[in-house]
Amino acid sequence: PYRYGVHLSPPDEWIGADTVIVCCGVAPATGWVASKAARAADGGLLVDAHMRCANMPMLYAAGDTATLPYDEERPHFFQQRTWAQARLTGWTAGLTCVRDLARWMSNAPPPSPPAAVDEEVHVPVGLELFVHTTSFACQPVVMLGRHDGRHLDRCDTDSLQTLVSEQHDPPRFVRATLHDGKLIGACLIGMEAISLAETLENLILSELNVGHVGAALVDGSEDIEDYFD
């Protein structure tokens, strides 16, 4: 009955389709890692925000092998195994490893440690706020935070508000997702739209209540940078 299909592995499942637009997926390959290392339900190694494995702090994981659990201190971030997140987790894991080595070496004789021992590695913004950039139909796309309202408890979704503005010439699409008046995510398409990315990013992280702004938040009728940047 279907012209095409997609084979998912694992699990060994075939899904029929009339049209396949894109098909991709990542499964953590951690079978070679010691079995005592704590794992998440998806098979990835459980790590903290600094990429240390949960129950083996001298073991570090990044990219597809790492699973970052939900953290109340980073409510605007969720893991999606993209190249951008892989680079950030790898960068963080490398710095953390050097920092931890410095701590260990601080009790050893010279040579001096390779890094200061009195500071923790700063978690990059990309691991505090979900940010993904791509292109669609030759237009730049930026997605920020919980841009589609997913990854929220059912009780939270009852107070969601979505604001949308779109135009065709020039192409511009802005969708903002608010929860209790606070911006929690946005999807921007088009050169004019993505110019709002930095301002909206600041609004998400600052958790200002912008419910009173209404459609002006997305339709360009007011310069929101003057108010919130």
Descriptors:
229 residues; alpha+beta; Enolase-like, domain 1; 5-stranded antiparallel sheet; two-stranded antiparallel ribbon; 11 strands; 26% strand; FAD/NAD(P)-binding domain-containing protein; oxidoreductase activity; flavoprotein; FAD/NAD-bd_sf; FAD-bd_OxRdtase
Number of separate domains: 2
Category by helix and strand content: alpha+beta
Q: Strand-and-helix sequence, N→C?
A: EEEEEEHEEHEEEHHHH
Secondary-structure arrangement, i.e. CATH architecture of the largest domain = 2-Layer Sandwich
Low-confidence stretches: none
The fraction of residues in strands falls at 25-35%
The tally of helices reads 6
What is the CA-atom radius of gyration, in angstroms?
Answer: 21 Å
The total count of strands amounts to 11
Cofactor: FAD
Domain FAD/NAD(P)-binding: 15-72
GO molecular function: oxidoreductase activity
Organism: Pycnococcus provasolii
What does this protein look like?
Its cofactor is FAD. InterPro entries: FAD-bd_OxRdtase, FAD/NAD-bd_sf, FAD/NAD-binding_dom. This is FAD/NAD(P)-binding domain-containing protein. Pfam families: Pyr_redox_2. The model has no long low-confidence stretch (mean pLDDT 85). This protein has helices spanning 83-105, 154-157, 191-194, 197-206, 216-219, 225-228, and strands at residues 4-8, 13-17, 45-46, 52-53, 56-60, 66-67, 131-136, 139-145, 160-168, 171-179, 182-189. The protein has six helices and eleven strands. It folds into two domains: 34-124, no CATH class; 129-228, FAD/NAD-linked reductase, C-terminal dimerisation domain (Enolase-like, domain 1), CATH 3.30.390. With 229 residues, the protein is an alpha+beta fold.
